[in-house]
Every structure is written in C-alpha cells, then in structure tokens.
Design brief:
A: alpha+beta, five-stranded mixed beta sheet, five-stranded antiparallel beta sheet, 27% strand, B: alpha/beta, four-stranded parallel beta sheet, three-stranded antiparallel beta sheet, 4 helices
Chain lengths: 531, 146
C-alpha cells in the first residue's frame, strides 16, 4: 500500500518547488510583489559606527580652541554644514550662510569641507577597526560596519566588545553613534537614529525599526518630503503602505532597502581591504634640524607601520623615508631587509646605521614613511642547542641580519651572493644576485667541469700586446702551460663566442688565463688570474 | 694564495652544526664561482661585499667578523693601521671567526696586531712564503716553498 502511495507522495514533495522559484524572483526581477521570506542561513551581527562629526574630525577641527564650523558650497553659497558646540551656543546653525554665521560669531573659524580627507580618515578608521573584526565595510560616507558575530567570543562577549570599540573611538577623538543589529541596514538606521540598541533576533527587527523617523534612512530629500506630505513619518508607516503602490510611486529600490533592513532579502557587503602598502606622514609645525627629534619621529612612524603589518600578519622587505624640506627636494632614505620584517625595533636599528651618514641639506618640515610590498612573514629557523658546548659562543646575529646591516650602510648593489649557471661561456657561467632577493631558492649545479678555471675573473677581458704571435704580460712573453680549450658557443644570441683559452705563465710565476678570438687571431686577451 | 685552498677545506668541514659563511670584502677582481666550486667552496654560503671607501671596508669586515656567522672573512684593505688591525683582531676573537687581510708587499714594515703574518712571493713552481710574525712562535724568518 505504501509503495502504491509513493508516487503521489513524491509528487507532493516536488510540489513546493514552484514557490521556491518564486522566491528567487525578487532577485531577478527588481519589483517584488510578494514579500519574500528567505531566512539568512548564517547568523550575522552587524555593528554600525556612524560618525556624524566626521567632516569636523577629519580636518582636525576643534583642536585649535577657537569655535570652528565646516562650510560646504551649495549653489554658489558657502553654507554651514557642521558647527562645534561653542559655535552652536552662539547661534551658528547648520544650513546658515557662512557670512551670517560670521556676523553672529566673528571669531568663528571656517573650514572648507574636504571629502577626500573624510574618505582618508574613514579608511584609516576602518583599517584601525580591523582589529575587532575580519570584516569591516565602509557602507557610506560616514558609516562603518563591522561583522562581529565571529569576534564575540574572542573579545569576551557583546557588552565587552561594544565597550572596547566605544572607548577606543573616544580615545581616537571620534564621536560615533553605535548600534548593533542582525542586518547591516537596520544597524545603520538605528545608529543614525541615535538608538544604542542591540537587536540580535531578527524577529525583533521590525518592532525596533517601526518607530524610527524617515530621516535616518538617508533617502533623497524629495522622497522624504513626498512621504511626509502623505502623512508617512516613520519606517513603520512606510511598511504599512501597499508594496505595489510604493514601488510604482517611488521606485523599487527603496522597497528593496526596507526588505534588506528587515532581513527578508540578503544584503551582501564588500569587506574593506586596506591598501597593502603603508604610507604615513608626520608633519611638524616648524622646521627642525634636531636629528635626535627626527629619529624619534621615525621611530613613531615605524611603530605605526608595525601595527599596520601586525593587523595583516605581514611584513615588508623595504621601507623608504622621505624627509621634506621647504625649498629643496625631499631627501630619501631607503632601507632594505633580507627577509620580510615588521618589527619596528629592527627597522630602527637599520635606520640608525644609515641615519648617521645622512646629509640633510635643509631643516626638515615633514617626514613620510612608505613601505614596500607587504609579504607574508618568513620565520627564521632558530637553532636548537641541547647542551652549551664550552667555547662556542652564541651568535650575535644571523647572516640575514648581517647582510641587512651591510646593505643598510653600503647599499644594495654592493653586497652580493653568487650562484652558478649551467653555461659554457665563462662570462655567463655565474650570476651575482642581491641578497634581498629570495636566495633560498638558489640551486647548486654539480661541479661537472674538469677543466681548471681561474679564481679571479676580470670584469672585462683586457687586451694584451702580442710579440710574434705570443701574448705579452707586464713586458714578458707568456709561455703556455695548458690549452687550448676551445669554447665556441652562444651562436643563438648576440653574445656568441669562439675562443681558444690557454693557461699561460710568465717569468713572475703568476698563472694567467688568456684567450684568442678565432676570428681575429692576432689579438690576445687576458680574462683571469689563477690564485 | 694557498691560504684560499686551506680556506675551502676549512669551510666544507667547518662547524659541526652548520657551516659558516665566507665573506669577501673588497676583492680586487670578481672571485669566479666555477673555480671556487672546484675548490670545494659552497657557493650558497658566500657573501661578496664591495664597500666604497677604506673606512667602509674596515667597518664591513668588522661587522662580518663579530657577527659570528662568518667562518672566514677575506679582506683587501686599502689601508690598515695598527689600531684598525687591532679592532679586526678583537672582532675575530669575539665572533670566533678567521680574518685574512691581503695587503701589498709595501705594508710589511707596518706594525700589525694580526696573530700570523705571511709574505708571499710567486715563484715558478708555486709561491714562496716568509713567516713575518707568528704569535707564540719564534720571531725568525723562515723561507718555505709551497
């Protein structure tokens, strides 16, 4: 009987699929007529930081002691965008013309709004907040979102985490409104409305959002006015409107936003990824010549550099300091490390070696630190010693550190390692490489050559005078003791050779490696000395 | 130059845990890797340093000697006074390293703190070695042919 009932049962199982297709519809079709009910599978918790005073904070306002206001040009008139507490007390209001504000408060300092600075400040803060969450998103001009569900355990719970973030923001001098909700938009709106709430359960979202005013959604002013004229004052009023009519009048986008805020639609966000290069400036109020002070500034920059790399578990092989002067071009100081390094102490040590020799043509007005490409840290193998053998001293530092110190003082090009290349041409049979390159990959060819090679090579073969067909070195005719060894190869590139090599010696006992070109038989060249 | 041959054998059977590096400070020409490899020197443990002036030569050599990672440091100083040679000697003792300074023949009259000073003359069948100074040895001049 059961088996007989099977097919209809399967048919019933299949039956719900059409609704599933309908559920997908809202994603494909931007006009959802049916309220989609797709529960999000992974619980996420969004921590929103809204920075209402960002325009002021990014230009460093409020530090001078004088009342400050930020102005923005709107339709050709400078209007007040934001005023600090002192200015507000004197009656300066956002939206006022700058002249009107100055009439009210002649000591008012006006600062032009700089969107670029705001963006930089926000990015800096996002980078800084990465210590609390692996997912930080810049949601808007002045909104940062952190996904904290994964960080709760590490930071000892929601309350602890919120306190930590709140306190750090205060310490950094930012005024932030914080809110936590299970969808990013809800968190943003709650923060904008100034509700310090935490809504973990999606079921509680709608009641919490209902009471919020329209303004916190940051919708266009025209739309808000139209809604207000209709008597729609809160989000709850919006939700009560018929979906179809709302879409027809105002566009599907805003309905989608409401659905996303309530968790009915997924709301994927982009994670903020800081640039993998560090660049920081330190500007001084006046020109400085004190080298001790400059070193201290460099140390501070290196410390923040270390923090930057620590957050990414990365290191870098190169850093570059620029010392800016008022008139002459900036003095640059480049440092290199054999392995990716982030420790401020080690960089500072390298800096110290170079800084002694650095000539600064003028007093310095600003210092900039730029780091090279960040790379994963390479750990250096330490030696495990079981018993201290007397007489064997601890190494002061490893070869990489030695190389770094040498390079820091005398330059990258002057410190080299060498390796062999399987090649018959003597000039190409070896290669020198910078120690800053990854030298661990050097492969060693087996010594397969049974012919003697000289210990010392001349950088370029030197022409020797000839005496009746024999080469002459230091006024003495050379005798051949070995050879010829014919090397004729390299015809495939421009540097092909065809030479007969001889080992020759003169009266002085020194053995030389000389060769004769087969094409021009008369001229002899000296290519190396045997030790 | 026979010292180099000894050096190469010294390197391959050097430290019991990990062989040390050989640093070449300001060599007159390019040390030719194929020849070095024929001598048995491990090329991956060679460091060639070309400082720009005399003080940097001494500084680099001292750094390499005292680091404790270099088994031997060969240097070709353009000038090496008594004080500088003393510093190198101390650095070598500190880093358990071996410093060999190659100097022109004219420098043999200068005092030096080195433990052993040899004078080499190329001959037809090799090199003639005069021992100028040997710490703890007899202060005589011996002629040896290698």
């Amino acid at each position: 009987m059961r088996r007989a009932c099977g097919p209809p049962a399967i048919a019933r199982d299949i039956a719900p699929t059409p609704p599933a297709v309908q559920q997908d519809l809202p994603l494909a079709d931007p006009v959802p007529l049916v309220t989609p009910l797709v529960p999000t599978s992974v619980t996420k918790l969004w921590f929103c930081v809204w920075l209402p005073n960002l325009p002021m904070e990014s230009v460093g306002g409020g530090n001078t002691g004088a009342p400050t206001a930020i102005v923005e040009e709107q339709h050709g008139i400078h209007r007040i965008l934001l005023a600090d507490a002192e200015a507000r007390a004197a009656g300066v209001m956002p939206g006022q013309a700058a002249n009107a504000a100055l009439a009210l408060l002649p000591t008012l300092q006006l600062e032009e709004r700089s969107l670029l600075r705001e963006q930089q400040t926000l990015e800096g803060l996002a980078t800084w907040l990465e210590r609390f969450s692996s997912f930080v998103s810049i949601a808007d001009q002045d909104v940062l979102l952190l996904e904290i569900a994964g960080s709760l355990r590490l930071f000892g719970g929601l309350r602890e985490l919120r306190q930590k973030i709140s306190k750090s923001l205060q310490d950094l001098g930012f005024m932030g409104a914080l809110a936590i909700a299970s969808t990013p938009l809800a968190a943003t709106w709650l923060a904008r409305a100034g509700r310090r709430v935490c809504i973990q359960d999606e079921a509680n979202l709608a009641p919490a959002l209902r009471k919020l005013p329209l303004a916190c959604m940051d919708w266009p002013a025209g739309l808000c006015e139209a809604l207000t004229a209709m008597g729609v004052m809160t989000i709850g009023d919006c939700l009560r409107l018929p979906r179809e009519g709302f879409t027809r009048r105002f566009g599907a986008e805003y309905l989608l936003q409401l659905d996303r805020a309530l968790g009915h639609l997924p709301d994927p966000r982009n994670s903020w990824r800081a640039p993998e290069r560090f660049c920081a400036d330190y500007e001084m109020t006046e020109e400085q010549t004190d080298r001790e002070l400059l070193l201290n500034i460099c140390r501070e920059l290196l410390l923040s550099h270390e923090q930057f790399l620590l957050a990414r578990q990365l290191g870098t092989q190169r850093v570059c300091f620029s010392f800016f002067h008022l008139k002459s071009p900036a003095t640059e100081l480049r440092l290199g490390c054999a392995r990716a390094e982030r420790s401020a102490g080690r960089w500072f040590e390298l800096l110290g070696i170079r800084f002694e020799q650095l000539v600064l043509p003028e007093p310095v007005i600003a210092v900039r630190l730029r780091s090279g490409m960040a790379q994963p840290l390479q750990a250096e193998a330490g030696r495990l010693s079981f018993r201290g053998k007397p007489g064997v001293q601890e190494r002061r530092f490893s070869i990489t550190q030695l190389a770094e110190r040498l390079i820091a003082r005398i330059g990258d090009q002057s410190v080299q390692a060498t390796s062999m290349v399987a090649e018959h041409r003597p000039d190409y049979a070896w290669r020198s490489q910078s120690l800053l390159a990854d030298w661990s990959g050097t492969t060693l060819d087996t010594p397969g050559q049974y012919v003697q090679r000289p210990l010392w090579m001349l950088p370029e073969p030197a022409l020797l005078p000839a005496d009746s067909g024999y080469p002459v070195y230091q006024g003495c005719r050379l005798r051949f003791i070995d050879g010829p060894e014919r090397l004729e190869t390299g015809w495939w590139d421009e540097d092909g050779i065809s030479r007969d090599y001889y080992t020759a010696t003169g009266n002085h006992g020194r053995r030389l490696w000389v060769f004769r070109n087969r094409s021009r038989a008369s001229s002899w060249y000296l290519h190396g000395y045997f030790g | 130059m026979p010292a180099l041959a000894r050096l190469s054998t010294e390197t391959s059977s050097q430290d019991f845990t990990e062989p040390g590096w050989i640093a070449w400070v300001a060599p007159p020409f390019q040390p030719y890797p194929p020849a070095l490899q024929q001598c048995g020197i491990d090329l991956s443990r060679m460091l060639i340093v070309r400082p720009r002036d005399a003080s940097e030569i001494l500084w680099s050599a001292e750094q390499a000697l005292s680091s404790g990672t270099c088994a031997a440091v060969l240097l070709w100083p353009s000038m090496l006074d008594d004080q500088a040679s003393r510093r190198l000697q101390l650095a070598a003792e500190k880093g358990h390293s071996w410093a060999i300074a190659f100097r022109p023949l004219a420098a043999r009259r200068q005092p030096s703190a080195a433990a052993l000073r040899l004078e080499l003359h190329p001959e037809k069948q090799g090199s003639r070695v005069h021992i100028l100074k040997s710490r703890g040895g007899r202060p005589t001049v011996i002629n040896t042919l290698i």
